[in-house]
Amino acid sequence: MWISIVLATAVLGSPVSGALPAGQVEGTISAVGTGTIMIADRDGTPVRVVVTGDTLVIQRGGTTLETIKPNNFVGVTARRESDGSLTAISINIFPPEFRGRVREAQFVMDTGNVMTNATVFQSVRRIAGRTLYLKVNDGSVVIAVPKEAEVWRLTVIKAADLRAGTHAIVRGGPGADGTFVATGITVDAR
To answer: Is the pTM of this model over 0.85?
Structure first.
């Protein structure tokens, strides 16, 4: 499951056949060229993605809750429990470049889950569970973190580091010329 973070938007290149995907394409990079990548989407349909100098390329690698420290900027996808509390599904530890670029806020996502992009002011591990305390604007949010919650560290990389065979999520929409021009690409660490 990919964490639904509002990282950046991408304009996806025109697919080889069919209509342009809306907003996002996910699949495996099948080829890398100068200024473009080809992605075989989940259905196997090839999509040509234009990569510009403004495209933000992120690599995500799995890590643990213990690597999260006070003052880290994180994005937490959580489900709201019947008692109103939040339980983390996944956590992204953002790179420093995301401060001021990703909005610090809490909002309900299209899936019904709650996204919290905020600064950690305390991380507590207890026998009965693990908890993150996040500062959001002038308030705070408490999120329980079960052992099964995914924790990812995001790192900014160069487009030249993209490789065929890598899983990728590209965000964006159609460009003026009918291509899909990426402003955001996230790849899994190899």
So the answer is: no
